[in-house]
Amino acid sequence: MSETKESILKIKNLVIHYETDEEVVEAVNNISLDIGKGEVLGLVGETGAGKTTTALGIMGLLPDKVGHVVQGNIFLEGEDLLRKSNREMQKIRGKKISMIFQDPMTALNPVKTVGDQIAEVVLLHNHCSKAEALTRAQEMLAMVGIVPERYRDYPHQFSGGMKQRIVIAIALACEPDLLIADEPTTALDVTIQAQILDMMRKLQREHGTSMILITHDLGVVAEICDHCAVMYAGEIVEYGTLEQVFDRPKHPYTRALYQSIPSLDKDVERLHVIPGLVPDPSNLPPYCSFCERCGEKKGVCSKYDTSIVEVEPGHLAKCLMYSPSWKEAE
Amino acid sequence: MAKYVIKRLLLLIPILLGVSAIIFVLKTLTPGDPARQILGNDATEEQISAKREELGLNDPVIVQYVRYVGNIVTRGDFGTSYRTNEPVLSEIIPRLWTSAKITLGAVAIGAILGILLGILSALRKYTWVDSLVLVISMFFQSVPEFVVGLVLITVFAVKLHILPAAGIDTPLGYIMPMLCIGLSSVASYTRITRSSMLEVLSEDYIRTARAKGQTEKNITYHHALRNAMIPVAQSIGTSLGNSIGGGMVLETVFSVPGVGKYIVDSINQRNYPSVLGGALVIAIVLTVINLLVDLSFILIDPRLKSTIISGGASKPKKAKVAEA
To answer: Which of A190, B25, B294, B310 has the fewest CB neighbours in a 10 Å radius?
Structure first.
């Protein structure tokens, strides 16, 4: 990672576990990330890779009693969020960091008007009157392309795409420094997906907001991200600029992901699949967690694990093929 | 909206026809002669048959039934009590009012206590507070109402002399019946509130509220409570209706002249016009209360408004009607 950029969020060696009476689920394993001001980072991975857990960890919204940050730091502009009290975090959430959740159908309170729900976040973080907050709510509605007069309507009177616009309006109402969007378009149909992404990109550029976009759709990443981090079994296996990760993928998992994307011009019988399943996060192997499914593995892969290393300036990958033991095996 | 209300009120017609028909059939199947009941054992056969003729008891049942329904529809006449010769309706109305006052008080006690305890146990789930609330509320639910009634009478009337043992001559007389019915319903409100709160608190929109930086207190009372109240309101509606007409046992224990006791007494006296009238009035009250409760849901849940205003194809049962 280049040291020159001004970073907004720095995650260091973050480990998050879900602990129940029966088992410990190692959801996030020792990840480090650095997000620059105004940067859009795509966090890609399969279901269960730990993307949402990472986001909830940043927000301090891990499920009560079950989710624990075991170790690590999360610095927002130099301040460690993990050392903040709940009261201090309430001042940060919605104001400095906002989050957009996956399913807009359930993300809004059904018994409150959308205007009230946008105004709520404005009132929480600004010293203003209810009337001023409602005016701001109407401005926000207009900004996300909804007729401002509809602020008196209830969520059920809007379509799915419009609900997601409202959720985005809530997230951006206090002009946060960092926006975490957790699969914001997964629950929407394809035509609406494009509209929402365009709008998010536009708003992000206009306000210079930094953004973490969580998705399992590589196309979405290609469209709007500057950087890309690929997660697998709770670890970041590859990180770099969009160009680095897309044009010169270094990790076998990333390469396999690209092979799985259906091509418009090639006529194939079957799509490429990655054999096997994601390892059980409550029982991770002591060696490379992708080893069982890897097409490029060698004997050493089922013996050791490795840490993420820089393979070219600013481009990191976590694979034994970039470690000295790989050459010894040859 | 008006269309919906009219539609619901029209439903009263088949309900009332059904209720009255069942009681008419029961009346013909029950042994005993109302004419003899009225005139006593000393009456002669001639007197009795004259009385039967006067009451129209010699006509076929179907003719009696049509005449009865006709009188209600044309004159609002629910018949005359055999015992007092007073119109049934004028006997029922004050008794209904008495029952209604006790029921309202009881439901208020039960619902307020139940909702508060339910919120408390939801917020402190799986702790000793939660268990304690469960034990207390289950205790009052599992002990029969009349036992609680007798205990209350023993303690407050016989030992402490604070409250009257029976009757409603003073307003204090209302307290024990209200407490008795109210306490027995606390458990069900507590459990409905608890499970409904827990369900709502795990909803995505609660997480959205947390992500806005909202405080836990406001999340509980502004975001969760109103959503959680929907099933509770439904339950309140049902028990309002049930206890107005169903307070027979307690009205007997506390000697309260309510509509439940009136019907029981009338059955014992074979005073059929009173039984019929009482049952029909209760059916009307129940239906109207149910309608009012359903309308009140609009205030709680805006999603139902569109369903109801658009004609209300079916009675909205669940909150998630509009959200598919």
So the answer is: A190
Residues of A in contact with B227 (CB under 8 A): 109-111
In a domain, B63, yes or no: no
pLDDT digits (tens, 9 = 90+) for B241-277: 777 766 777 888 888 888 888 888 888 888 888 888 8
* Helical packing angle, B259-268 and B225-245, nearest 10°: 30
In a domain, B307, yes or no: no
CA distance B208 to chain A (A): 6
Q: What is the pLDDT of residue A72?
A: 94
Looking at beta carbons, which residues of chain B come within 8 Å of A103? 204
Q: Would you state the pLDDT for residue B309?
A: 63
Residue range B21-54, pLDDT digits in tens:
888 888 778 777 778 777 877 888 888 888 888 8
B213 in contact with A, Cβ within 8 Å: yes
Distance from CA of B215 to the nearest CA of A (A): 7
Contacts of A101 in chain B (CB under 8 A): 204, 207-208, 211
In a domain, residue B182? The reply is yes
Nearest to A107 among B204, B300, B306 (CB): B204
**CB pairs < 8 Å spanning A and B:** 75
Residues 53-82 (A) with a CB less than 8 A from some CB of B? 59, 61
Residues 279-308 of A with CB under 8 A from B: none
Whether B127 maps to a domain, the answer reads yes
**Which residues does chain B have within 8 Å of residue A91's beta carbon, measured at their own beta carbons?**
213
**Structural domain range at position B137:** 95-254
A107 and B208: CB-CB below 8 Å? yes
Q: Are strands A178-182 and A97-100 parallel, antiparallel or unpaired?
A: parallel
Type of residue found at A263 = S
Spatial contact of B181 and B216, defined as CB atoms under 8 Å apart = no
Q: What is the CATH number of the domain that holds B143?
A: 1.10.3720.10
- In chain A, the residue whose alpha carbon lies closest to the alpha carbon of B226 is A111
Mean pLDDT rounded to a whole number for chain A: 90
User: How would you write chain B as a 3-class SS string?
Assistant: CHHHHHHHHHCHHHHHHHHHHHHHHHHHHCCCCHHHHHHCCCCCHHHHHHHHHHHCCCCCHHHHHHHHHHHHHHHCCCCECCCCCCEHHHHHHHHHHHHHHHHHHHHHHHHHHHHHHHHHHHHCCCCHHHHHHHHHHHHHHHCCHHHHHHHHHHHHHHHCCCCCCCCCCCHHHHHHHHHHHHHHHHHHHHHHHHHHHHHHHCCHHHHHHHHCCCCHHHHHHHHHHHHHHHHHHHHHHHHHHHHHHCCHHHHHHCCCCCHHHHHHHHHHCCCHHHHHHHHHHHHHHHHHHHHHHHHHHHHHCCHHHHHHHCCCCCCCCCHHHCCC
Q: What is the pTM assigned to this prediction? A: 0.80
How many domains are there within chain B? Answer: 1
Q: What is the pLDDT of residues A112-160, one digit of tens each?
A: 999 999 999 999 999 999 999 999 999 999 988 899 999 999 999 999 8
- Minimum Cα–Cα distance from A117: chain B residue: B209
